[in-house]
Write a structure and sequence with these properties.
The chain is α/β, with parallel strands linked by helices and 357 residues long. It contains 13 helices and 10 strands. The model has no long low-confidence stretch (mean pLDDT 95).
């Protein structure tokens, strides 16, 4: 039997190599992707998933809207099934982008069935398993085959499927996405090497009892996913909020036992920094992740991860994750949890179909 946390640690550290393989796999699918896109007149996109992949849907939706300028919304798969009148599934000009690590999640498969019946539009799947039930039901499939995992909590699978979403949105926007995203594996490796000890130190600081993850724009979904990893792996109190929304009530929970993690954008960084500085003055520890130095590195209880990626804003979205994966892993180990097998969780959620009364 593998020692506690072995698979999670290995999967986190393998991300640079897996991202490179995922980008190569995407490039091999580009001709078929172009033919698929040209066959359909897509006017609207719905992105859907469950748990981590719902948070990835939030990221994907923001990418499609910003880069391809197509109205896009993200919804949990259960809402597509149970509340189609709220989601407004549309017609054959709507594309359903379904995201699932296993391709076997019951709610996601049900969402495809409801969408087919009520809208009749095409389905594009993003998954790690090209032979899954979801892949067989989709009109087009993007796979991150190298990202398959032993662990229950998603790390390299989520980040690799995010790489696919970035590549897809960039390519559909007419950008040379493969070339733009090519530096990502090296960036991830450098960041993990440079900030590994910081992630371990913060994760093992037991005086920190609450974790708040803040993000805006492309980064809100990433903040949600980082929150979920901390909660799943370590059973720690962990929440995610839009950065400026944090002032509207949630900040009342902040004290000297809090770590406030800010995923900083460039467009709104001045406003996001004001929130983090306010939390630091309230006694919280702060971890700021940003493209460039914030100028606050010498402040008490202030910690930084500086990307120095030199990538466009949309392309660097996934680069925020690996160090936060390490943070969650080290807190799990410090809490005597097994991040490979979080309590009461399974790798695939299979239920009785929501369509069966």
């Amino acid at each position: 039997m593998a020692e506690r946390g072995f698979h999670t640690f290995s999967e986190i550290n393998s991300q640079p190599d897996v991202w490179a393989a995922t980008l190569a796999e995407f490039q091999s699918l580009v001709p078929a992707l172009d033919r698929f896109w040209q066959r359909h007149s897509i006017q609207r996109i719905i992105c859907t998933g469950c748990g981590s992949t719902y948070y990835l849907s939030l990221v994907a939706a923001s990418l499609f809207q910003a880069l391809r300028h197509i109205p896009t919304q993200a919804r949990p798969a259960s809402e597509v099934v149970l509340f189609p009148e709220v989601v407004q599934l549309g017609d054959a000009s709507t594309l359903l982008v379904t995201i699932s690590r296993s391709g076997e999640t019951t709610e996601t498969l049900d969402a495809v069935e409801v969408f087919r019946e009520q809208a009749g539009g095409p389905v594009l799947a993003i998954t790690c398993y090209g032979d899954s039930s979801l892949a067989r039901r989709a009109d087009f499939v993007l796979t991150a085959s190298a990202a398959q995992e032993e662990s229950v909590a998603q790390t390299r699978s989520f980040s690799s499927m995010t790489v696919l979403a970035e590549a897809l949105a960039g390519h559909l926007a007419g950008l040379d996405a493969g070339t733009i995203l090519r530096p990502l594996p090296a960036i991830a490796r450098r960041l993990m090497d440079e900030y590994r000890s910081l992630a371990q130190t913060l994760g093992e600081t037991m005086a920190i009892q609450r974790f708040f993850f803040l993000g805006t724009g492309f980064l809100y979904g990433m903040a949600c996913e980082a929150m979920l990893k901390m909660k799943e792996m370590s059973l720690s109190y962990s929440e995610a909020f839009h950065t400026l929304e944090f002032r509207h009530g949630p900040m009342s929970m902040v004290d000297e036992h809090s770590l406030v993690i800010g995923l900083l954008s460039e467009g709104a960084q001045r406003h996001e920094m004001a929130v983090l500085e306010q939390m630091q003055r309230a006694g919280a520890h702060v971890l700021a992740l940003s493209e460039k130095e914030t100028g606050c590195a010498d402040a008490a209880r202030w910690h930084e991860v500086v990307l120095h990626s030199e990538l466009p804003t949309w392309a660097r979205t996934v680069a925020y994750l690996p160090v936060l994966h390490l943070l969650a892993y080290h807190r799990a180990m410090a809490n005597q949890q097994n991040p490979d097998r979080p309590a009461r969780l399974d790798a695939v959620v299979t239920l009785k179909s929501l369509l069966i009364s």
